[in-house]
C-alpha cells in the first residue's frame, strides 16, 4: 500500500466515523426532541378542552402547533442556508424550551390563548426537528442517504416512550395544576437536546451551497417533485388528522387519560420503529413501493377504527397509522432527495416541508370541528378521500414513467 492510498483510506475511515457520529447524535436529539410533539399531541386537546372558551376550540392548540410547523419551515431553510443547519437546530431547541415554559404559565393562569402561543413555538421546534433527517442525508454519500435519513427517524422510537411516560409520571406532580409539571419537563428535555446538537459536525457552507441553483418554480414543476409532495402531504395530513382527534375521542368514549397516553406511545413507536429498516427497504424496492405500502396501512388503520370504540380498536388504529406514516413520509422524503442538486437542497427541502405542514394545518383545524359535530366515525371516513388522491397520483406517475421509458 502506498503512502497516498494509506492517506486516502485514513480519510475515508474518518469520514465514516464522522457520518456515524452525526447520525447517532441526530438520532438521540430526535428521540429527545420528538417528545415535544408527543407531549403536545397527548395533552393539547385535553388541556384545550379544560381552558377553551368553547368546546369546539378544544383541538385548536394542536392546530396552532401545526401552523407553527408550517410557518417555520421556510425561515428554517433560510437560516440553514445562510448560517448552517446547526444554527437552525439550536434556535429550534430554544423555541422548544420557550414552548414548555409558556404552556406551564398557561396552565397556572388558566389562559387558553397563552397555551396556544406555547403550542405555536412547539410547532416551530417540531419543524426544525424534522429537518434532522435531511441533515443526516447531507453527511452520507448518495448510496447511503436513504439509510441515514431513516436511521435518524428511528430515534423517534424513544420519543414514543419518553413523551407519553413524561405525561403519565408528571401530570399529577403539581396537584392543583394538571399537566403543569409535564410542560416544565418538556422544556428541560428540549434544553438537553440542544446540548446533544452542539456536537454535530455538518459539512461546511461554501459558495456552491449558496449559489441558488434553479428557480423554485422550475423545480416545483417536476412531475417527480409534485408526486413526492402529494405523497408527503397525504401521509402527514392523515397522521395528524387522526392523531389530533384520537385522545379527545377516547375521552368522549369514556376511556382514561392513561389509555390515551399508551395509545399515543404505541402510535409513536409505530411511526419511528420501522425506521431501522425503512431505508434498506427503499434501497431494495424503491421509494414509490414503500409509499404505496404506507398508504395501504393508513387505509387499514381507518378501517379498524370504524369497527369499534374500545381501547383495542383505538390502539390498533393508532399503531397502524404510525407505521403507515413511517413508510409514506420517509418514502416521500427519499423521493425529494432525487429532485434537487446539491446547491438547491435547503430551499427545496424547506419548500417541501412548507407545503406538507401547511396542508396538514388545514386537516388539523377540520379534525376538531368534525369530531365535535359529527363524531369519530366521520373523521375516520373522511380520511379515505386524500388516500384515493394519493393512490391515483402514484398510478398516473407509474404509467407516465412506463410510457417515457418504453
From TrEMBL:
Q: Do the record's keywords include Transmembrane?
A: yes
Output the InterPro entries linked to this UniProt entry: MFS, MFS_dom, MFS_trans_sf
Put simply, this protein is called MFS transporter
Pfam families in alphabetical order:
MFS_1
Q: Which residues form the Major facilitator superfamily (MFS) profile domain?
A: 22-401
Origin organism lineage: Bacteria, Pseudomonadati, Pseudomonadota, Alphaproteobacteria, Hyphomicrobiales
| TM region(s), chain numbering | 26-48, 60-80, 87-106, 112-136, 148-167, 173-197, 225-244, 264-282, 289-309, 315-338, 350-368, 374-396
Q: Which domain of life is it from?
A: Bacteria
